[in-house]
Amino acid sequence: MNTEVKIAGETFKNPVMTASGTFGSGMEYSDFVDLNKLGAVVTKGVANVPWEGNPTPRVAEVYGGMLNAIGLQNPGIDVFLERDIPFLQNYDTNVIVNVCGKTVADYLEVVERLSDAPVAMLEINVSCPNVKEGAIAFGQKADSLYDITSQIKKKAKQPVIMKLSPNVTDITEMAKAAEAAGADALSMINTITGMKIDIHKKRFVLANKTGGMSGPAIKPVAVRMVYQTAQAVQIPIIGMGGIGSAEDAIEFLLAGASAVAVGAMNFVNPYATVEVVEGIEAYMKQYDIENVTDLIGAVE
Amino acid sequence: MTRKKKVTATVVSQKQIGEQIFDLWLETKLSKNAHPGQFVGVYPHNESTLLPRPISICEVDRAKGRLRLVYRVAGKGTAEFAACKAGDTLDLLGVLGNGFPIDKAKGKKIFLMGGGIGIPPMLELAKTLDGKKQILLGYRNKELFLEEDLAEYGDVYVATEDGSVGTKGNVMDIINAYSLQADMIMACGPMPMLRAIKKYAGEQGIPAYISLEERMACGVGACLGCVCKTAGVDSHSHVHNARICTEGPVFEAGEVDI
After folding, report:
1. Region B5-96: CATH code
2. CB under 8 Å to A154, separation ≥6 — which residues?
3. ipTM (interface pTM)
4. Interface list for chain A against chain B, based on CB atoms closer than 8 Å
5. CA-closest candidate to residue B221, choices B240, B250, B244
6. Which pLDDT does position B1 carry in this prediction?
7. What is the pLDDT of residues A198-222, one digit of tens each?
8. In terms of CATH architecture, what is A5-295?
């Protein structure tokens, strides 16, 4: 049985990754899971300088999911290179660094600082709905997405994944723009912008008023978007949105994702990532599937 | 640090001990390494309510391998817990957080101050602390809970908001009413109470260790949902935001901006 997948020339021992922002740099979940068993650890977004993030409350539960408006709190690239990268080097797994910024120059600075780091791929966050500058502003218009993607591609030493926002009229237009600009792969979907109101206090539950929705409730939307995008572009897709089990992950693979990421469900089941790996293997055995890649886009 | 785990615990007993307040004993191996001021995440079975509910540890019975949680029903998740009966199971994430620095209290004259649903963690703290304990408890009304358990470990003073029992007012009013003094405070309760304690401790020049609360998601320091403003640069993100679930929930009052 072969669970290996290749994305932009990089080999992953299996198609299971962590979704950025839900797993730190792996440290916090290393009590629960053996990081060596994962296809990749995708880190929390890192910027050129430390970011404080948003005021609290930053998280709220909603039916079958949650909202977050963390606002990309992160220690900045200096601390990340000194602390998080060496930690991840202790493990036999690929490292994908999620990169965020307020301006194109911010992104480019992080990308350049990562040039010589032992990092398999870069995931560019142009889809966080919770910060006022940068992020989603680059990911909601095809021309600005094209522009930032091509600028990053010029500087990046590693293959570049563009992480797409579902908060657009037609996600395939964004996917095509990223592909045309040279993106090596796509991650999708980031969170869906949502809101929750406390009817007793007549106040927004999140200090930021809006937050990004994640969790099982968004999975059908994500599967649909992955399927549509897989029909529209040639580059590989890393699928995510509510994945908590192998069954969920296999849906994404069948829809056309080459790999998957577990996000909010890490909070529900800290062992979820490894259970998804094992569950995919069990499914392959059950249906006598030799290569996991046979599942990619295999929906009929 | 002990490794965190997600485990299935068995309900030993549960009873209601106040208005929406429940007293739950669980059999779980997490009891082995649980310390006062730490908490566990309790998972609802209903999959529409996904996230673990952070609930402080009220008491630890290591010999029997049990944890006692005293909590208030605040929504769908805790309402589900309140319906649990002996023999039912609940999934727990734990043990989480730093806990109170009990070693620092050795031989000290100390106020343990609990307000409302901040009272439960005072019990294991009172059991464990080595010092002269004055236990100051604030309730809404005459529906007291845990005051008898606490009386076994120190001098208990009660305040009620409506004045129906003890001093009328809050825990700060107890200090004035009895002219009490201490050289250290450990406290858990609502934010206005913690702010008053921080101010008082500053004036008295004594350390106060306060347990904070915030909406949490992961409980293990990954999501950065439950931060509080800190005076110094925090160790994780190098900004001024410590993670309540990980660096906390107990902070020296002077370290946090509340």
Report:
1. 2.40.30.10
2. none
3. 0.95
4. 21-24, 28-29, 31-32, 44, 50-53, 56-61, 63-66, 68, 70, 73-76, 79, 215-216, 264-271
5. B244
6. 57
7. 999 999 999 999 999 999 999 999 9
8. Alpha-Beta Barrel (3.20)
